[in-house]
Design a protein that fits this description.
Blueprint lengths: L1 H23 L4 H48 L3 H11 L7 E16 L6 E17 L4 E10 L9 E11 L7 E9 L19 H6 L2 E11 L2 E8 L4 E2 L9 E12 L4 E10 L6 H4 L5 E2 L5 E10 L2 E10 L19 E12 L3 E12 L9 E12 L2 E12 L10 E13 L1
Parallel strand pairs: 8-11
Antiparallel strand pairs: 1-2, 1-18, 2-3, 3-4, 4-5, 5-6, 6-7, 7-9, 9-10, 10-12, 12-13, 13-14, 14-15, 15-16, 16-17, 17-18
Length: about 425
């Protein structure tokens, strides 16, 4: 650049000299004309080069400034575009492409009358705090963890804080229908469908109390055309006598199909599950011995449907054989073949913000020793009061076929509750 400027100045100083020669010199007109034309041509080329160089310098300075600003901003808040560009530079996905966060906080008040003598109790509790973090590592791999605090109320000693789930998923359903998951997570036995608050203070659905199963497992799945299939294996906590205690010998399957019709506002999901060792579930493993004479497998079937503002959910879970009477007995101390069922129906009405009204009919059979009610009726109102904020109020009535709270032949429990929940 400096050389071009010096040359320009030099020609500007030399030109008057040549023009002087034209006026006073002895050279011929033809020679002078040729020299003048040559100098004019050189000046035009020189001006063009100067202009071109100035444009190049301006563009380079602009790009350098933009890059500096982008780097400074990205250094403060690394966003998706930043990692995408980095991935293009590296020829692969960046170290962390994206984080997804989830937060659930539930707090409420409950009044419970849970014995035949009319004695009741009430409490205020922070029932649930759940924080989930998902890291999308690249196009095919993601990891997720969930921290859970639960307080069932009436006693601070029962509150707990745990890493509820932590697992790695390999797969991309947008690209390929098969995937795999390994870690600690809830395996798909049943669906645990409910519109009621499902925290331990307000309401533990009978299906949740019976069939919830959180295990360190390996799962393989398939999802396409509305069809979802999964199979999993894990090392359960309840073993068969004389079998290896530390062996991956429990397994299960789940299959469901979802149909949706937007013009008719219709959605239906129907599914079924199988579990090789029903005693491994959270609700049964704490009641039966650690080793059983024989393992009892279980099955589940579920339906979830909605049509416009109306919805209907139904679910059944049960054993496929009987437990030995010394391991799990019914109310008559005979061999138990426990089962539970839950039906909920209702509607959504957007009158100010969405209001959901749900009714529950649930129960169990031969599950008295699992502290699951024989029949349950309930109603709940779930009103959206702000974005991502739900206020709930409801009533539940439980009938037990075994004396749990006092010495009467049958016990009842009535529960009034109200709760506020935020979920992001």
């Amino acid at each position: 650049m400096k050389k071009l400027i010096i040359m320009y100045i030099f020609f500007m100083l030399v030109c008057p000299f040549f023009y002087t020669k034209i006026i006073y010199g002895a050279e011929s007109n033809e020679d002078l004309s040729a020299k003048v034309e040559a100098m004019e041509k050189m000046l035009i080329e020189l001006r063009g080069q100067l202009k071109q160089q100035a444009e190049i310098n301006k563009t380079e300075q602009k790009e350098e400034l933009q890059a500096l600003i982008r780097d400074e901003v990205r250094g403060l808040v690394p966003g998706e575009d930043y990692w995408t560009e980095k991935a293009q530079e590296l020829g692969e996905k960046g170290p962390i492409d994206k984080f997804n966060f989830g937060l659930l906080i539930e707090s409420g008040v409950v009044d419970r009358d849970q014995n035949a003598n009319g004695e009741d109790e009430n409490d205020i509790s922070l029932t649930t705090v759940s924080l989930s973090i998902e890291a999308i590592v690249n196009k095919w791999v993601s990891g997720e963890t969930n921290f859970l605090y639960e307080d069932p109320g009436f006693s601070d000693d029962d509150a707990s804080l745990d890493v509820e789930e932590g697992f790695i998923t390999i797969g991309n359903l947008d690209e390929f229908p098969f995937y795999a998951k390994v870690g600690n997570f809830y395996v798909p036995y049943g669906a645990v469908l409910t519109h009621f608050p499902d925290d331990p203070l307000m309401d533990v659905p009978v299906t949740l109390a019976f069939g919830e199963l959180n295990e360190r497992a390996l799962l393989a799945g398939f999802e396409k055309w509305g069809l979802s299939l999964s199979a999993y294996v894990f090392n359960g906590s309840v073993e068969k006598k004389f079998d290896d205690a530390d062996a991956i010998d429990s397994f299960g399957f789940d299959a469901n199909y979802t149909y949706e019709s937007e013009p008719n506002e219709l959605a239906i999901q129907v599914g079924a599950s199988y579990l090789s060792n029903l005693a491994d579930t959270n609700g049964i493993s704490g009641v039966v011995p650690g080793t059983l004479e024989r393992l009892v497998d279980g099955w589940a079937a579920y339906l979830s449907s909605s049509w416009g503002k109306f919805f209907l959910d139904a679910e059944y879970m049960g054993a496929l054989d009987e437990f030995r009477s010394g391991e799990l007995a019914d109310k008559n101390n005979m061999e138990a073949e426990p089962s539970v069922w839950n039906i909920e129906f209702g509607l959504n009405h957007d009158w100010w913000r969405n209001l959901e009204v749900a009714f529950k009919i649930a129960g169990s059979d031969e599950a008295e020793n699992l502290s699951i009610p024989g029949t349950r009726f309930g109603v709940v109102l779930n009103q959206e009061i702000f974005d991502n904020t739900i206020w709930s109020a409801g009533y539940l009535n439980d009938d037990f076929e075994k004396d749990i709270f006092d010495n009467s032949t049958e016990d009842q429990r009535s529960t009034l509750f109200t709760q506020i929940a935020i979920e992001l």
